């Protein structure tokens, strides 16, 4: 079941409310220090209505919730691995200082009860929630926070997410319930980073004893870790001391790893699992028609987007006009309809998704269907009136990517560009494209639990970033991306990101394709589940089973 | 006999050593870096270096190999790169599942194939023979994962008689265990059954023309006694060879079937290790599979001597 129009209206309303609150905060920003959370505000998550699905009714606690996902975590330490499959597990066991609301719009307190930001936006004072305990019974204190931040920042830990702390100059324990973080310079997304499952707070005493947290999990979150059997399941039980009274509602949580897409679908159909993640888009129609099962695919899209990228240092793609011609030739609608089975939104402007506050609404640079005349004219201007020969590298490890490459090949042929598709094993593809920048064109996707616009744009389009395989470099874009980080207030950042998205996609190092809707499914008796564009299942603690 | 078995065991050692080198080198030739897979979407060079050092991937390859072999010789299978868990312990919980699947599939194959093969041979050139050989041909052409998907569709989704996947330990619920194993064992076993049935049939037809069969018939033995006492025993030698080979196919087929039925056996563990470039796990599993193959070959050779006294060695 996707969202009905009435839900959409409701969400529009929620957004208006959220924006008003945002204005309030920005008002505060203008006058001085900001306080988020604290006694005045309603505590925590129950403030906004969930997106879409929740039915009303008296929650029935108890039971085991079984979730099927596609693959195992890559280690259990939330700081060492940044794999999506690790966050799918750790988000239930660990807490972060902050958390996003259910619309991924506002950052709210989580393990911090209140955060005060100084007038110069450089000093963050986190007041920690009182009475929170680690799952082994030890109290959660300011020392743990300091330890967690310093551990993640330390290069020796090898955290791929150390960048979140790149501007942190100093972490000071003021008292057992207060931590102060001083930044080197203003960092707009700092609190957003602190809300990431990758910025989990970890127990100092356990890490010091065990060295790392790869094989065990001790957190403060709603569920306690019981066991992990690779290629089978992770089992967790309810944390009776969780700080939100009455949550989680289920007694046990079991996350099963079912690699094969059809097998995962079968597990849903035969009610072997209650909720399922990462389902194949081709199964959407079948699931939607099935009684007793609800297919979930948020209409505003997800964090996943796909593109065809061009090597900006290699002729002919070093020519802006050629790149723009490709962007005009691309058939986004055909990809959305045929490769994504309708579960995708053509990206005609920027890539920051519709659900984000930074969505560039009116930015329309390219049509959803090819503008062949325009593309041909651009090619002629660039000196290729008869087109040229080139190659597209892609990995058929992901059928969606291979499908897009085929559609792109056809679309390019229509404007005279003859592209030969080179299929590569995933590892070789990563090595060629991201390691050695050895490609003319390549088709790939980009996704993860990204929420802040910085996470969508900076790593791929800033000059010295590892995820800019197209070797795109534009001083103006670099400057704007940096400004997006150092600007504090949301309105200011929104203006920066509007500007930078327009510039990036006009320069077209990649021709953006689609934002892809993630397909999940739940049994009808599953109540209170909030799907998120990230595909993560943070709100499982509110789920109950009506059976 | 014991000496023969002992010599065969000794002969296994160089094969295993050679195999271990091959496996070790092949693993490192697979494109893609464990560090990249492991660290996800945003690894920094420092993070990659730290990971390589921890996993021992920064050492020269020959040192890595000797480290591994040295530990193996001491019975230490090492730890998984990604989960940090002990590979020996993991395999100990998974091997029984794959072993059960393989044995049950083999059982399905033999129980179905041998009687049908005999019937087809006795009713040579009849409509029954034609039906059975055609059926065998179809079975032979079906990939086991596809047969598995069909079985799930008909016997788990259309008619919910069996679970579509998952594993229930025998100790917890014997009936549930057999139910959870039924469809995977059928999808593996039926394909092998086709092969074994065809072999049984042709081998029976070969033997039936032998003089001693005519003699047995001439001296007035009943048909049943001729079949079980004279025909089958002699016809089974090539069948045993095929069964031994099918064991290997079934073990290999488990890689697909365990994924379809999400059974947490060796094969699923290996698939996970491939996805995550978990070299220590993968190379241990490949070596284990090699060892199983060699043991089955040995077992087949020993069975020959039981069936045909002429093959007995000192």
Describe what you observe in this structure:
The complex is a heterodimer of chains A (547) and B (314). With 547 residues, chain A is an alpha+beta fold. Chain A has a domain at 305-516: Roll (Dipeptide-binding Protein, domain 3), CATH 3.10.105. Chain A has 15 helices and 22 strands. Chain A has helices at residues 5-31, 84-93, 142-153, 190-194, 204-210, 261-269, 284-288, 320-329, 332-339, 372-381, 399-414, 426-435, 453-461, 475-486, 490-507, and strands at residues 34-37, 64-69, 98-100, 107-109, 112-117, 123-128, 168-175, 178-183, 223-229, 233-238, 252-257, 275-276, 293-296, 305-310, 344-346, 388-394, 417-423, 441-446, 510-516, 520-523, 526-527, 544-545. Chain A has a seven-stranded mixed sheet with strand order 9-10-11-2-12-20-13, with helices on both faces. Chain A is globular and about 70 Å long. The relative contact order of chain A is 0.15. Chain B has two domains: 2-73, no CATH class; 97-311, MetI-like (MetI-like fold, Orthogonal Bundle). The longest helix of chain B has 38 residues, at 223-260. The interface between A and B is large, with 51 and 49 residues.
Overview in brief:
The complex is a heterodimer of chains A (547) and B (314). Chain A is an alpha+beta fold.
What order do the helices and strands come in, and which of them pair?
The complex is a heterodimer of chains A (547) and B (314).
Chain A: H1 5-31, E1 34-37, E2 64-69, H2 84-93, E3 98-100, E4 107-109, E5 112-117, E6 123-128, H3 142-153, E7 168-175, E8 178-183, H4 190-194, H5 204-210, E9 223-229, E10 233-238, E11 252-257, H6 261-269, E12 275-276, H7 284-288, E13 293-296, E14 305-310, H8 320-329, H9 332-339, E15 344-346, H10 372-381, E16 388-394, H11 399-414, E17 417-423, H12 426-435, E18 441-446, H13 453-461, H14 475-486, H15 490-507, E19 510-516, E20 520-523, E21 526-527, E22 544-545
Parallel strand pairs in A: 2-11, 2-12, 16-17, 16-18
Antiparallel strand pairs in A: 1-5, 3-4, 5-6, 6-8, 7-8, 9-10, 10-11, 12-20, 13-20, 14-18, 14-19, 15-19, 21-22
Chain B: H1 2-29, H2 34-39, H3 45-55, H4 61-73, H5 87-122, H6 127-141, H7 144-158, H8 174-208, H9 211-218, H10 223-260, H11 266-275, H12 279-307
């Amino acid at each position: 079941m996707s969202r009905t129009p009435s839900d959409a209206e409701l969400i529009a309303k929620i957004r208006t409310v959220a924006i008003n609150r945002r204005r309030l905060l920005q008002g505060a920003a203008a006058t001085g220090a900001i306080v988020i959370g604290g006694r005045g505000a309603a505590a925590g998550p129950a403030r906004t209505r969930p997106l879409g699905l929740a039915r009303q009714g008296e929650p029935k606690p108890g039971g085991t919730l079984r979730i099927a996902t596609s693959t195992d975590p890559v280690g259990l330490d939330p700081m060492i691995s940044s794999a999506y499959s690790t966050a799918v597990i750790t988000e239930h066991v660990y807490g972060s200082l902050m958390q996003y609301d259910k619309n991924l719009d506002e950052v709210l307190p989580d393990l911090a009860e209140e955060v005060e930001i100084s007038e110069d936006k450089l000093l963050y004072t986190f007041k920690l929630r009182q009475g929170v305990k680690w799952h082994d019974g030890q109290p959660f204190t300011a020392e743990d926070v300091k330890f967690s931040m310093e551990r993640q920042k330390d290069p020796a830990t090898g955290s791929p997410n150390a960048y979140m702390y790149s501007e942190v100059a100093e972490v000071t324990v003021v008292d057992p319930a207060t931590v102060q973080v001083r930044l080197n310079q203003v960092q707009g997304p700092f609190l957003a980073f602190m809300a990431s499952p990758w910025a989990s707070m970890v127990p100092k005493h356990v890490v010091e004893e065990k060295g790392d947290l790869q094989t065990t999990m001790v957190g403060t979150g709603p569920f306690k870790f019981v066991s992990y059997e690779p290629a089978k399941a992770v089992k967790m039980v309810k944390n009776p001391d969780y700080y939100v009274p009455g949550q989680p509602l289920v007694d046990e949580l079991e996350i099963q790893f079912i690699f094969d897409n059809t097998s995962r679908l079968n597990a849903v159909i035969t009610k072997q699992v209650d909720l399922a993640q990462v389902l194949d888009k081709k199964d959407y129609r079948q699931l939607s028609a099935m009684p007793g099962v609800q297919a979930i695919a948020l209409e505003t899209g997800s964090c996943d987007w796909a593109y065809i990228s061009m090597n900006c240092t290699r002729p002919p793609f070093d020519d802006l006009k050629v790149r723009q011609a490709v962007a005009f030739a691309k058939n986004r609608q055909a990809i959305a309809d045929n490769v994504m089975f309708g579960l995708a939104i053509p990206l005609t402007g920027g890539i920051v998704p519709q659900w984000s506050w930074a969505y560039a609404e009116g930015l329309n640079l390219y049509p959803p269907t090819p503008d062949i005349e325009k593309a041909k004219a651009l090619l002629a201007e660039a000196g290729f009136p008869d087109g040229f020969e080139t190659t597209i590298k892609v990995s058929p490890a992901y059928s969606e990517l291979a499908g897009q490459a085929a559609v792109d090949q056809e679309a390019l042929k229509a404007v005279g560009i003859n592209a030969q598709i080179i299929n590569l094993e995933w590892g070789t593809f990563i090595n060629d494209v991201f390691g050695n920048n050895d490609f003319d064109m390549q088709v790939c996707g980009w996704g993860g639990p990204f929420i802040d616009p910085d996470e969508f744009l900076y790593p791929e389009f800033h000059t010295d970033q590892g995820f800019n395989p197209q070797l795109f470099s534009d001083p103006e874009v670099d400057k704007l991306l940096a400004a997006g980080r150092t600007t504090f207030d949301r309105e200011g950042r929104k203006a920066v990101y509007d500007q930078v998205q327009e510039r990036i996609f006009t320069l077209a190092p990649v021709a953006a394709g689609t934002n892809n809707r993630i397909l999940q499914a739940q049994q009808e008796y599953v109540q209170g589940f909030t799907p998120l564009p990230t595909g993560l299942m943070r709100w499982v603690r509110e789920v109950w089973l009506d059976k | 006999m014991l000496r023969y078995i002992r010599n065969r065991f000794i002969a296994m050692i160089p094969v295993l050593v050679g195999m271990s080198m091959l496996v070790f080198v092949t693993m490192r030739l697979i494109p893609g870096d464990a560090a990249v897979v492991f660290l996800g979407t945003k690894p920094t060079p420092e993070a990659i270096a730290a990971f390589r050092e921890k996993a021992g991937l920064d050492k020269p390859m020959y040192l890595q190999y000797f480290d591994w072999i040295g530990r193996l010789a001491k019975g230490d299978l090492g730890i998984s790169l990604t989960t940090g868990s002990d590979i020996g312990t993991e395999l100990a919980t998974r091997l029984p599942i794959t072993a059960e699947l393989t044995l049950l599939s083999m059982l399905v194959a033999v129980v179905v194939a041998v009687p049908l093969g005999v019937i087809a041979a006795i009713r040579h050139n009849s409509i029954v023979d034609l039906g059975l050989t055609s059926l065998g041909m179809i079975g032979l052409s079906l990939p086991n994962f596809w047969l598995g998907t069909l079985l799930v569709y008909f016997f788990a989704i259309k008619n919910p008689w069996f679970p579509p996947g998952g594993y229930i330990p025998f100790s917890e619920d014997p009936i549930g265990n057999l139910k959870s194993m039924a469809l995977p064992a059928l999808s593996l076993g039926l394909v092998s059954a086709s092969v074994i049935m065809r072999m049984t049939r042709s081998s029976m037809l070969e033997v039936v023309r032998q003089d001693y069969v005519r003699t047995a018939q001439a001296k007035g033995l009943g048909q049943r006694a001729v079949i079980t006492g004279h025909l089958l025993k002699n016809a089974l030698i090539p069948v045993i060879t095929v069964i031994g080979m099918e064991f290997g196919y079934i073990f290999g087929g488990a890689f697909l079937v365990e994924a379809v039925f999400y059974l947490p056996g060796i094969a699923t563990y290996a698939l996970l290790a491939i996805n995550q470039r978990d070299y220590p796990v993968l190379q241990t599993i490949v070596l284990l599979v090699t060892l199983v193959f060699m043991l089955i070959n040995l077992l087949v050779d020993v069975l020959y001597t039981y069936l045909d006294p002429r093959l007995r060695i000192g």
